[in-house]
Write a structure and sequence with these properties.
This protein has about 150 residues and is an all-alpha fold. The protein contains 5 helices and no strands. Helix 1 runs antiparallel to helix 3 (about 50-80) and helix 4 (about 85-110) runs antiparallel to helix 5. The longest helix has about 30 residues, at about 50-80.
Length: about 150
């Protein structure tokens, strides 16, 4: 399907897939948070004894959930204002929303003493991707409609 094709409800394909990614992200990262609560509640030593791991896992949970909500908000915002977000902005915000929490999580799985794991290097470029997408969204909304 091309970028402009719509499904039966009149929603563009990109909007549908962004909503699916957003809701899936919320579900996955909220479930991850529930797992973290369980590890804390059952006092699992490998989780409790490693402050760096706890912090990185919490960051993964929070960023993954929040970025999923942001994907949903972007889609609904574009539909409400009847604007079309540029394809590069959509791809960048979706990639950033996926890579940032994964970077935090993988950095906490295995890390040297006192430092996060090498996967932490996924986080800064992911943040830039998300910021680019959000600035593009803001500019799309600021542009007068015809």
């Amino acid at each position: 399907m091309s970028d402009n094709e719509s499904n039966k409800a009149g929603r563009p394909q990109w909007a549908r897939s962004m909503l699916v990614q957003g809701w899936t992200s919320v579900a996955v990262w909220m479930s991850f948070g529930l797992l973290l609560e369980g590890l804390l509640g059952y006092k699992i030593p490998s989780y409790l004894g490693d402050a760096q791991r706890r912090e990185l896992f919490r960051l993964a949970h929070v960023h993954g959930t929040l970025l999923g909500v942001i994907l949903i908000a972007i889609t609904l915002s574009c539909e409400y204002a009847m604007i079309r977000l540029h394809r590069a902005a959509r791809i960048s915000v979706r990639a950033g929303a996926l890579l940032m929490p994964v970077g935090f999580m993988l950095a906490g799985v295995s890390h040297p003493e006192g430092d996060p794991g090498i996967a932490i290097w996924l986080v800064p470029p992911s943040a830039v991707l998300v910021i680019f997408g959000l600035v593009s969204l803001a500019l799309s909304h600021a542009r007068p409609s015809n």
